[in-house]
């Protein structure tokens, strides 16, 4: 897991975006940002809405969805669409890759310099200039594998 981005720098990025685009300032946006940072994981809009409503029940779904769009436009979050699951949002930070459990939906972030070097080597060998990439590995996490093994009947 990576260190979460500094909430003060995210606030500054948000304020700069709001001023540049002549949007109204909003304390609700700041509350949503603080909630998002405190959750510290890949979340759906619905999960964020529930967490935000725990802090202020007057905030509606439309406000959360609009705010996520503003966060995307300002470079605070990125939208992720993992196979077989809901759209998730994560704070923009250092590059990392993902392990995704197809059984329970667990998402594990990782980075591995040897994988990054190998990707660069393959691209260079093909004369390809990489601008970005997503590396997602799908499978079954250790907990789900253990649970599946416990459910299997013993052989006689």
Describe what this molecule looks like in 3D.
The chain is α+β, with helices and mostly antiparallel strands and 156 residues long. It is 47% helix and 15% strand. The chain is built from 6 helices and 5 strands, in the order ααααββββαβα. Strands 4-3-5 form a 3-stranded mixed sheet, with no helix packed on it. Strands 1-2 form a two-stranded antiparallel ribbon. α2 (27-39) packs across α3, α2 crosses α4 (61-73) and α3 crosses α4. The longest helix is centred in the N-terminal third of the chain and has 14 residues, at 7-20.
What descriptive keywords fit this protein?
3-stranded mixed beta sheet; 2 domains; Dna Ligase, domain 1; 47% helix; 6 helices; Arc Repressor Mutant, subunit A; 156 residues; two-stranded antiparallel sheet
CATH domain class of the largest domain: Mainly Alpha
| Overall shape | flat
Biggest pleated-sheet summary: 3 strands, mixed
Mean pLDDT across every amino acid position: 88
Structural class: alpha+beta
Main β-sheet, spatial strand arrangement: 4-3-5
End-to-end distance, in Å? 43 Å
Look at the structure and name the CATH superfamily of the largest domain.
Answer: Winged helix-like DNA-binding domain superfamily/Winged helix DNA-binding domain
Count of spatially separate domains: 2
Give a short overview:
It contains 6 helices and 5 strands, in the order ααααββββαβα. It is an alpha+beta fold.
Task: Record the SSE blueprint.
Layout: H1 7-20, H2 27-39, H3 45-55, H4 61-73, E1 77-81, E2 87-91, E3 97-101, E4 107-110, H5 113-125, E5 136-139, H6 142-151
Parallel strand pairs: 3-5
Antiparallel strand pairs: 1-2, 3-4
Helix pairs in contact: 2-3, 2-4, 3-4
């Amino acid at each position: 897991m990576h260190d979460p981005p500094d909430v003060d720098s995210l606030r500054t990025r948000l304020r700069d975006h709001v001023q540049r685009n002549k949007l109204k300032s909003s304390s609700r946006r700041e509350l949503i940002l603080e909630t998002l940072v405190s959750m510290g994981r890949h979340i759906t809009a619905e999960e964020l809405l529930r967490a935000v409503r725990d802090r202020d029940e007057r905030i509606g779904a439309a406000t959360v969805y609009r705010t996520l769009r503003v966060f995307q436009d300002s470079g605070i979050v990125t939208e992720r669409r993992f196979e077989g699951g809901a759209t998730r949002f994560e704070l923009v930070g250092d590059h990392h890759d993902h392990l995704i459990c197809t059984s329970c939906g667990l998402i594990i972030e990782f980075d591995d310099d040897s994988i990054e070097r190998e990707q660069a080597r393959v691209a260079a060998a093909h004369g390809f200039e990489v601008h970005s990439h997503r590396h997602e590995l799908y499978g079954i996490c250790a907990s789900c594998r253990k649970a599946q093994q416990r459910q299997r009947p013993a052989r006689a």
